């Protein structure tokens, strides 16, 4: 199986991991899950994370062919639109983004939002393939954390984002609008059915115990060591655990900020007549979530 070169970029503000995956023979590459910096206290936007990715692509003399998101993120803004404006590379996400757009357009009362996924250049369905240079890449549908979550398979690497985390952190929550612990269980079973030596790259690392950030494991390690998968071995046990734990978790601090950007392909709201952009925060839209 082909083995792409993978560079990871950890953002400690959001515990997010961004990736540049490239074909070592052709130098073609893709960026996966880029972060657009946002400070909720001041409302400031910055591009340090995205520029770090662009600098790496330039310094390594790579040819950027894709800007990929695994799902509409709830804890950071996507830098897909910024990177496309800088490079012209096409953007992509899973086809079920249209369901998430419809769900959140109702929450935001956003009647003008196009809910056909046209904000991206390509919508991937289950089983779709594409190329990064000579590397064939494939798409698995991985719902549960969100309705639209997908896994990218590139050679021997699986980019699973919020499905499983590093083995000492377990699995992702499934209580966002449209989420499902049962669907998450099925998605995890699909991932751990991949060959044991498949490299698994996660989208977040919360550094349990204060350890250094990590983002790479294998299917074999997930099956042997993941603290949730080894403890809850059947669907009913896992779902009961996951739903019970999720009820104790506060919502991500940026969920209401980020979704209105990320369901629009990473585009910020258009400036109003005074030249300023404004985010819209619905009140009591996510009732029942734990308070931090």
Explained architecture:
The chain has a six-stranded mixed beta sheet with strand order 1-2-3-6-8-9, with helices on one face. The model has no long low-confidence stretch (mean pLDDT 97). The protein has a single domain, classed as Metallo-beta-lactamase, Chain A (4-Layer Sandwich), CATH 3.60.15.10. The protein is of the alpha/beta class. The protein has helices at residues 48-59, 80-87, 97-108, 181-192, 219-225, 235-246, 255-262, and strands at 5-11, 16-22, 28-32, 35-39, 44-46, 63-68, 77-78, 91-94, 122-124, 129-132, 135-141, 150-154, 157-161, 199-202, 216-218. It has seven helices and 15 strands. It is globular, with a radius of gyration of 18 Å. Residues 15-204 form the Metallo-beta-lactamase domain. It holds the Pfam family Lactamase_B. This is Beta-lactamase. GO terms for molecular function: metal ion binding; sulfur dioxygenase activity. Keywords: Metal-binding.
Task: List the keywords.
single chain, 292 residues, alpha/beta, Metallo-beta-lactamase, Chain A, six-stranded mixed β-sheet, 7 helices, 15 strands, 24% helix, globular, metal-binding
Distance N to C terminus:
45 Å
What can be said about the biggest beta sheet? Answer: 6 strands, mixed
The top-level CATH class is Alpha Beta
Order of helices and strands: EEEEEHEEHEHEEEEEHEEHHH
Q: What's the structural domain tally?
A: 1
Strand order of the largest sheet: 1-2-3-6-8-9
- The total beta strand count reads 15
- Percent strand equals 15-25%
State the helical fraction.
10-25%
Radius of gyration: 18 Å
> Structural class from helices and strands?
alpha/beta
Globally, the shape reads globular
Could you give me the name of the CATH homologous superfamily?
Answer: Ribonuclease Z/Hydroxyacylglutathione hydrolase-like
Task: Based on the coordinates given, report the CATH architecture.
Answer: 4-Layer Sandwich
CATH topology: Metallo-beta-lactamase, Chain A
Rounded average pLDDT: 97
Protein name: Beta-lactamase
Domain Metallo-beta-lactamase: 15-204
GO molecular function, one term: metal ion binding
InterPro entries: Metallo-B-lactamas, Mito_Persulfide_Diox, POD-like_MBL-fold, RibonucZ/Hydroxyglut_hydro
């Amino acid at each position: 199986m082909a083995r792409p070169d993978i560079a990871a970029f950890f953002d400690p503000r959001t515990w997010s991991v961004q990736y540049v995956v490239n074909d070592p023979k052709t130098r073609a590459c893709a960026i996966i899950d880029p972060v657009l910096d946002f400070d909720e206290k001041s409302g400031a936007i910055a591009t340090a994370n995205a520029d770090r990715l662009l600098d790496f692509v330039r310094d390594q003399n790579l040819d950027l062919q894709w800007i990929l998101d695994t799902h509409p993120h709830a804890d950071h803004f996507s830098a897909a639109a910024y990177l496309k404006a800088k490079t012209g590379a096409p953007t992509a996400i899973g086809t079920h983004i249209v369901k998430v757009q419809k769900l959140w357009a109702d929450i935001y009362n956003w009647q003008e939002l196009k809910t056909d996924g046209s904000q991206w250049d390509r919508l991937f369905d289950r089983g779709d393939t594409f190329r990064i240079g000579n590397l064939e890449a494939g798409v698995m549908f991985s719902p549960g954390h969100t309705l639209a979550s997908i896994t990218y398979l590139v050679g021997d690497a699986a980019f699973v984002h919020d499905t499983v985390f590093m083995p000492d952190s377990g699995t992702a929550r499934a209580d966002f609008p449209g989420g499902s612990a049962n669907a998450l269980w099925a998605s995890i079973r699909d991932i751990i059915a991949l060959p044991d030596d498949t490299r698994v790259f996660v989208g977040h690392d919360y550094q349990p115990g204060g350890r250094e950030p990590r983002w790479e494991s294998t299917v074999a390690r997930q099956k042997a060591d993941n603290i949730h998968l080894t403890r809850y071995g059947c669907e009913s046990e896992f779902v009961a655990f996951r739903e019970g734990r999720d009820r104790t978790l506060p919502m991500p601090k940026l969920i209401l900020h980020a979704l209105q950007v990320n369901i629009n392909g990473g585009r910020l709201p258009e400036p109003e007549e005074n030249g300023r952009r404004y985010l819209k925060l619905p009140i009591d839209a996510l009732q029942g979530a734990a308070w931090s």
